[in-house]
Amino acid sequence: MINSFKRTLASNLKNIVGWTTNRKIIVFSVDDYGNIRIASQKARMNLGKSGFSIDSNRFERYDGLENANDLTALFDALNSVKDKNGRSAVFTPFANCANIDFEAVKKNNYDKYRYELLPITLDKLEGYHGTWNLWREGINHKLFIPQFHGREHLNIKLFNELISKKDTHLLACLENECFTGLPLNYSKLVPFNEAYSFHSFEENVELSEILTEGLYEFEKVFGYRAENFNAPGAYEHSILEKTMSTNGIKFIDSIVVKKEHQGNGIYENKFRYMGKQNKYNQRYLIRNCVFEPNLVNSKDSIARCLKEIETAFFWKKPAIIGSHRVNFTGIIEEKNRKLGINALTELLKEIVKKWPDIEFMAANELGNLISLKNKHNEF
Ligand SMILES: [Zn+2]
């Protein structure tokens, strides 16, 4: 009861300030596409035998790289509804365009981090036939409009420190072609999967170079510049906004009160709202709804999400639904994909029934609309 009251209050507070519209706009911003976390059920079992806790959370249980079956099922679900303009629902996958080049790292005797681009990985991996073609098809049909979630979903400095020490956990991961479940106590400030987290502020110089290169690689992979950024772990410092701006990023995902690390464990709160502009004319997009069907009971996740959409529309805000690939991937457990896709199909059905004037948009399309409408009316 108290939890549900707190949730309702938080959901309202997220929506009070910022850009408004009478249009009923739905965006799905879904993190982690393209990232190899767990290679296979067999690899996961091997990690279990090496002492990894493979059941500690849903990412350790299910989060395998999406394959052709996953994308086909996802596109079918998105195509199962149409908005008032006849457009299907659309996902904005916040994608990583590179992964560890496991082969090269091994061949070079585990010397340092090396990466390869997503289409090459998909071409090499068993069980991924046709997957890259489906990405292309999804993009061409505007069902799947990738934006930037970092070049890779890992912290390179930490990776290189661990590999130079021949850390047994990291080596076990690399041997199984995974990158998951490393102990978080290597460093409280820099969890293994947070690409833009740091200890000391000066590390941002190197992070800026990684960001620039990542945005260039993104264009090489997807054929266009990314406009929208959400960092893996979302703990990047705003000092990087200049680099983002120089390299084409116009929109940055955020939460309303962002606890920003200043270095050495000191934090500052940054207040953001839908459409807020920074000094580089970039705008913040607030994820004001959540859809994580494999985190809670899937019926509850649908009901909660519908309630949050209703709250967003009450405050005349677009509904930006945050989610993760782990809900819609089936390579580790097919039943996980089925649960997620069924829940998504149900959610979409309810959305178009409840709001016949709904409009589905990609996150960057919404960002461009906000920029357009605010040209002469800044707040
Ligand atoms: Zn992520």
Describe the protein:
- This protein is of the alpha/beta class and 379 residues long.
- Helices cover 40% and strands 15% of the residues.
- A hairpin with a 2-residue loop joins strand 8 and strand 9.
- The protein is globular, with a radius of gyration of 20 Å.
- The site of zinc ion (ZN) has 5 residues, from strand 1.
Which overall shape is indicated by the principal axes computed on the Cα atoms?
globular
Q: What ligands are attached or bound here?
A: zinc ion
Number of domains: 1
Helix count equals 14
Number of strands: 13
CATH A-level architecture: Alpha-Beta Barrel
Fourth-tier CATH superfamily name: Glycoside hydrolase/deacetylase
Main beta sheet: strand number and arrangement?
A: 6 strands, parallel
Low-confidence sequence ranges: none
* CATH fold group: TIM Barrel
CATH class: Alpha Beta
User: Radius of gyration over alpha carbons?
Assistant: 20 Å
List keywords for this structure.
alpha/beta; TIM Barrel; binds zinc ion; 379 residues; six-stranded parallel beta sheet
